[in-house]
Amino acid sequence: MSLRVLAAMSGGVDSAVAAARIAEAGYDVTGVHLALSSNPKSYRTGARGCCTLEDSRDARRAADVIGIPFYVWDMAERFHRDVVEDFVSEYAAGRTPNPCLRCNEKIKFEAVLDRALALGFDAVATGHHARLEDGVLRRSVDAGKDQSYVLGVLTRDQLSHAIFPLGGSTKAQVREEAAARGLTVADKPDSHDICFIADGDTRGFLAERLGAERGPIVDETGAVLGTHEGAYGYTIGQRKGLRLDRPTSDGRPRYVLSIEPVSNTVTVGPRESLAVRAIVAERPIFNGPVGEPHEPLACQVQLRAHGEVYGCRVQLSGGVLHIALDSPATGVAAGQAAVLYSGDTVLGSATITSSS
């Protein structure tokens, strides 16, 4: 008897081709679109590949072309609680969250997978650009589209019930295949923005929910250089939009070095003060072929989605991951994920809490 697979269909080209491939491979496939907003018009509009009314219709049309059953699952309440509210509270605490990573963790591979298994499905397939070989997560062959970073939070058990059919293909090949299969989403633009911020104005979105709270912008000596309307409107490494009253004596730009939510203070300084060589991260997950590193382990780490990869040595102590970088990194923000690699193989991940 063939495996029963639930294909998560966002309405974009990637998930459509992923569903088509596994259906053609002989699996018993059912398509499902996740309704993530109780009022879709409050989220982004336009054919962008996630969370809009157009996306639901595009997903249904793709399922019709492929010839598989199709359903819409209402995940709005869970999405709002686990992704949107988490996003707001993380910024309020002075951290910089990654909502796409949290959505993969809490919605697509916790809520959806749990429901799928309860309904008798064997696995969930998505259009993520990543490879899964013998339960081991690896980077996509298309380095520019690789999404292994946002999947690094998944557990071994979740990965054992996942299928990523696109990891061996480039995005160009996926679009060509979609056109050849008669899928109308072949030329649909990719989604890059945060889906629940309709106009792309993150600062405005947060201000509406957290309110304006004026505070100081200071340099490393504590001298006040300006004011802000809410520390949540800033991220570590930010250079533009600081609106400072006093320029630097040497004309060099300033960057956000730290955000202190209790005193509502944003500290700025020169780029070299952003340099980080040591990182502490919590909530570690080890999902790769190597176990927990209780002794120092040489590997690589990626600190942001599509960010640079750094050589490092990592060690787990008292449930906390300590990362020593071989070369300094900049723009390291608490709340982001540190995803560990050995070459193109994911070893695990943890959430950054501090750096020095």
From TrEMBL:
The record marks H128, Q336 as: Interaction with tRNA. GO terms for cellular component: cytoplasm. GO terms for biological process: tRNA wobble position uridine thiolation. The active site is at C103 (nucleophile), C195 (cysteine persulfide intermediate). Residues 204-269 form the tRNA-specific 2-thiouridylase MnmA-like central domain. Residues 145-147 are annotated as: Interaction with tRNA. Pfam families: tRNA_Me_trans, tRNA_Me_trans_C, tRNA_Me_trans_M. Catalyzes the 2-thiolation of uridine at the wobble position (U34) of tRNA, leading to the formation of s(2)U34. This is tRNA-specific 2-thiouridylase MnmA. It comes from Sphaerisporangium krabiense.
